[in-house]
Amino acid sequence: MTTREPPSYLPAMPLDPQARAFLDQLAALGGIQLHDLPVAQAREAMEAMSAMRGGEPEAVADISDRTIPGPGGEIPVRVYRPGRDGTRPVLVYFHGGGWVLGSLQTHDGVCRALANAADCVVVSVDYRLAPEHGYPAAPEDCWAATRWVAANAASLGADGARLAIGGDSAGGNLTAVVALMARDRGGPPIRFQLLVYPVTDFGFDTASYRDNAEGYLLTTEGMRWFWGHYLAKPASGSEAFASPLRAESLKRLPPALVITAEFDPLRDEGEAYAGRLREAGVPTTLSRYHGQIHGFFSMGDLIDAGKAAVREAAAALRAAF
Predict the structure, then answer these.
(1) What's 217's domain CATH number?
(2) Is 107 a catalytic residue?
(3) Is residue 294 among the annotated active site residues?
(4) What is the pTM of this model?
(5) Distance from the CA of 220 to the CA of which of 79, 101, 154, 304 falls in 20 to 30 A?
């Protein structure tokens, strides 16, 4: 079990210049916060923000869209195959966006990069979004997709016995929850969980929520907006499948890599979850990226640390497979 988080006596690092340039670019466009918009417009804005990153997407040998059965109807997925020959391990990926925003397209670039770098099939899941489909629709879709991939991996050119799950932000939350579901509901076996700045707790009282409340893309008010759309009842936020940090036990979960960003409201709860995984005996690596903001993992075209984090994730996936 290793860690890259800084000792507590080290001062905070300055904001990465590339992250600052991205934030300045957003400010120049008017600085509108997603949580100030109606849901439909916020979704359009996130799609536009994704397109802002520019750059040519990585070529992948084969990419296909399809649907798979889910508890509320067909679930769209996008399958990335880095090569057409041979059977590869498989990563089921859950996109971020606060359970309200995001799509297969907003996370297309990072799924391409992970497929190539980890040499694995990636199945990106377009789970149902809130508020139209609030908690627990998203985790139930993601668990159903994971079960389907495990059972039907051969049809994807994948090995269902070498299965990992992963996601960023709300997708990191869904990853942690699916790992709990698989443990508590009898499978499928999961080799590894990739948790990128995950949401792990329905609470807003950490130091990182206070210190990074605004000015770094994701804001504290934005998280209140996301949770408000996701939960029909605030009391549901105490449930483990909403707030995995509150699970009674984290024993017998898959090994994990937890990636956090220094200037992120979610930093402390992600690191607390890594700590609880370790206490439960789960092999866990915690990697804090200094000077970084929420969202950097999927901004490799703009922020070099995003590429580095994808390489770290891919190396961990290769080792787990």
Answers:
(1) 3.40.50.1820
(2) no
(3) yes
(4) 0.95
(5) 304
